[in-house]
Amino acid sequence: MKFKAAAVQTGPIEGDPEGTLQRALDWLDKAGAQDVKLAVFPELCYPGYNPLLAAKAQPDRYEELIDILKFLAEEIPGPATDRLAEKAKKYDMHIVFGIMEQGEGDKLHNSSVLIDAKGEILSVHRKTILTPGIETPELTPGDELKVTETELGVIGQLICADCSCPETSRILAIKGAQILCLSMGGFRLRWKKRELMDPVMEYSHASRTRAVDNSMFLIMANQTCTASGFEFIGKSRIINYYGDLLAMGSEGTKNEELLVAEIDVDALAELPLKLISRRRPEIYEEILLPNEEASRVSGDFMVSVRGGDDV
């Protein structure tokens, strides 16, 4: 099946949740005009990261800002997803959208919701690997990696740091994922005069390697905006199973774009070489062992090393 897929490189409007959601709806109108059948949005596209990041940066207003975050978070389904669903039905489009979810027991989740062309919610993925210091301890991680069969193919969803480890995308591939929809919140991060996010995005989270190793399409949508000193840098992309960059977004904090490419899921069945077929799980027992040294790395430095700052 050939169809047009899109990575929607956009960002929230600080202090304006309604404007933020309307911006997303406007992008869906533009995607619909191009006959896009699958639109992928960034991490926490609604309401954005700012209330959480602002709370971290302003300890004297922490409780006030966290209360704002809880107020803006929505249950799924809820008002925001209902409005997205109307666009999905209007354009016969599947949508993957990043949202702050109000879960059970007052828990907050960084979630990705998959809505089909009938406006039905097919899947909610809750981010399993939270970014230390930035999302912890306020958010609650998910504990499931699942795939969803759709009219377009089998879709797997991940959110930003979920892709820090290759095991997550590989598990989705083992479960049959043909399309990996990755909602990112990648920001500039300098340490010892080096930009750390470039190698993370290019060689890890949204790399060609992930697509080739798992014989899947990878659609990554990253935020482009500034929030509480963090600069979210775009560079969204669509990659095929050959590792070809079918579409690539520009870099910057004000570079909203709609990246569109045609993908052919049926071609996956014709691939004569699938590296995943060479797996030998019977000798992989050690993959489940803890890494003692890595457990001592907290990642908290990201809160103090933000944007163009350097340490």
Structure description:
This protein is of the alpha/beta class and 311 residues long. 25% of the residues lie in helices and 28% in strands. The chain has eight helices and 16 strands. The strands form four sheets. Strands 5-4-3-2-1-16 form a six-stranded mixed β-sheet. A hairpin with a 5-residue loop joins strand 4 and strand 5 (121-126). Helix 1 packs parallel to helix 4.
Number of strands: 16
User: Helical stretch count?
Assistant: 8
Radius of gyration from the CA trace? 19 Å
Secondary-structure content class: alpha/beta
Ranges with pLDDT <50 over ≥5 residues? Answer: none
Helix proportion range: 25-40%
Order of helices and strands: EHEHHHEEEEEHEEEHHEEEEEEH
Q: How confident is the prediction overall: mean pLDDT? A: 93
- N-to-C CA distance: 49 Å
Task: Work out the strand percent.
Answer: 25-35%
